[in-house]
Amino acid sequence: MNLRNWPIFDFLEPTFRSKIHMVLVYGDLGNEALIVTQDKWVYAIGTNKSSCLGTGDTCNAFYPKLVESLCNKDIKTFAYGKGPHVLALTHAGEVYSWGSNISNELGNISAQGVHESSTPSLVQILSSDTEFIVDIACGSYHSMALSNIGEVYAWGKNHCGQAGLCANNDTEKRSKKVNVLLKNKKFICISCGDSSSTAVTDNGEVYTWGDNSVGQLGTGNNIDLYSDKPCQVTKLTGVVIKKVTCGGWHTLALSDEGILFVWGDNSHGQLGISSSNIVWTPVMLTMPKMIKVLDIASSHSTNISIAMGDSNQIFIWGSCLGQYIKAPTLTSVRCIYDAFANYATPRVMHKPLILHEDKTIHILQSLKDAFNDPSTSDLIIQVKGNPIYVHKFILKIRSHHYKTMFQKQSVENDQCIIKEDQFSHDVYITFLKYLYTDEIDNLSPIDILAELLNLANIYSESQLQRRCLQIIIKRIRVSNVACLYGTAIAYNIKAIEESCFKFALNHMTAVIETPSFAELNETIVKAFIIKAAKAGAFKT
Q1: Which helix (H) or strand (E) holds 8?
Q2: Hey, which residues does 296 pair with through a beta bridge?
Q3: CB 172 within 8 A of CB 159
Q4: What digits encode the pLDDT tens for the residues 133-180?
Q5: Phi/psi at 292 (5° precision)
């Protein structure tokens, strides 16, 4: 991954270049870029079409210019549309938008009624204080966001229903929950085509909506030109899809077994099936030179398809340097970004490129990358049918619970699958990821943290107990204290119970008036009132 492959960075000073942490190249000619430095400052460079640089003006920037409103926001990722409009997601789960707004693709109140905005503004998406955004995506003129609890939100141009559930509107001005009709579906992956949208659930189901004029929804319906609500791609039933990526009018889907499925427009050979026919339902793409597909990529602004196979082999097909390549072709490049830089038209990035000052791969990063990686895993923790891919030796050296389990002369020591059902899937994911990274997401829902604390108590993970307690106590609020108090009693977590009681004692009237206090069972309420009375809460 070399910035020299991208001409827009040619004039950067070496000292500035050495400080870069993340970059994104976008625009209809690959002539705009965003840069995040290691000290979390954000810069923009390029032609500034539709004020898409976010610098607060309409001037081009030949050299990096500061995007002041995003500095020190701890940017996690960017996404862009064709206008172009741009979204930025912070590690805190906030979304900012700027640039073209001809179809309300910015999704914020301050930009309504204007065709473009030159300054990043916060997008109001969520209504719950425990929910936050974990991923973003852009189509040509619409936007999507994915939350930590698996909800999908969309806004912007909607002439084909790509913003979902509002087909009577040409545009959707504010973010709207798309999967409201899909009860108990939790999404983990989103992607946008030119005017279509795709999402994957935690159990590997694929749902699509929006433009279907060339089969990009994969539903097999060649009569209806669009769908304004998510429809399951039933041809993939029984296949566990872990990732989807949309080109302009075609879709790639990768299974947990490394099998690639394709559907949609094929006028540029972007499906790789050696013909130019539209494909209305998913078909498996066979690539004899690639035993297993490890990753896939495309972009709503291109008609190229890219796949990475074993030994980091990179294959391309579709529209490449003006030629139509109808079958996956092995390249000499060693990463997906270099394939976009060398073969895509326009020369844009499919997602931001993260640069590391130290080119060596550190052991901690290797451990993080190994978590939930089916290609290297030797053990599956199965929670209510959902697999989590792990490694026995890491579990043994990091967890007393699993060390004891594997030391016993029992079937668990030899089998490849262990079924766990004492806690939720989200809690096991959080716990196992902690074993690999020694990190806990401070923004995790508080009920997950409380359940994780219970797991830590039962598994005798003392350090994890302390970390959970610190995070939970800092996040006690009037809105959640009653619920958390009841949870602490149910799990017999005395430290949380006492912290919640002391907080409630200091905010008694406000706490009693909350809906969560009314939902506590009668026994807990009576005990709370007696304890509060003894503490003098009702003295006049």
Answers
A1: none
A2: 307
A3: no
A4: 999 999 999 999 999 999 999 999 999 989 886 555 666 666 788 877
A5: -145, 135
Please list, in sequence order, all residues whose beta carbon lies within 8 angstroms of the beta carbon of residue 15, skipping any fewer than 6 positions away: none
Query: Chain-wide mean pLDDT for the chain?
Result: 89
CA gap 450, 93 in Å, rounded? 21
SS3 for 298? Answer: coil
Q: What is the pLDDT of residues 32-50, one digit of tens each?
A: 999 999 999 999 999 999 9
Which residues, including other chains, have CB under 8 Å from residue 509's CB and lie 6 or more apart? none
| Residue 448 zone, left/alpha/beta (φ > 0; ψ -120 to 50; rest) | alpha
How far apart, in whole angstroms, are the C-alpha atoms of residue 335 and residue 314? 7
Among 13, 52, 55, which Cα is nearest to 29's? Answer: 52
| d(C-alpha 235, C-alpha 45), whole Å | 44
Separation of alpha carbons 26 and 33, rounded Å:
6
- End-to-end alpha carbon distance in the chain: 70
Element (H, E) at 363: helix 363-370
Q: Which of 367, 386, 493 is nearest to 433 (CA)?
A: 367
Specify the pTM. 0.68
Q: Which amino acid belongs to residue 516?
A: S
What is residue 391's DSSP assignment?
Answer: -
Locate tokens 């406000």: which residue? 510
| DSSP string covering 207-249 | EEEEE-TTSTT-SS-SS-SEEEEEEE-GGGTT--EEEEEE-SS
Q: Give the sign of the dihedral formed by CA 340, CA 344, CA 348, CA 351.
A: negative
CB-based contacts of 99, cutoff 8 Å, min separation 6 = 50, 51, 52, 54, 80, 81, 83, 84, 85, 86, 106, 116, 117
Q: Look-up: residue for tokens 């930590």?
A: 148
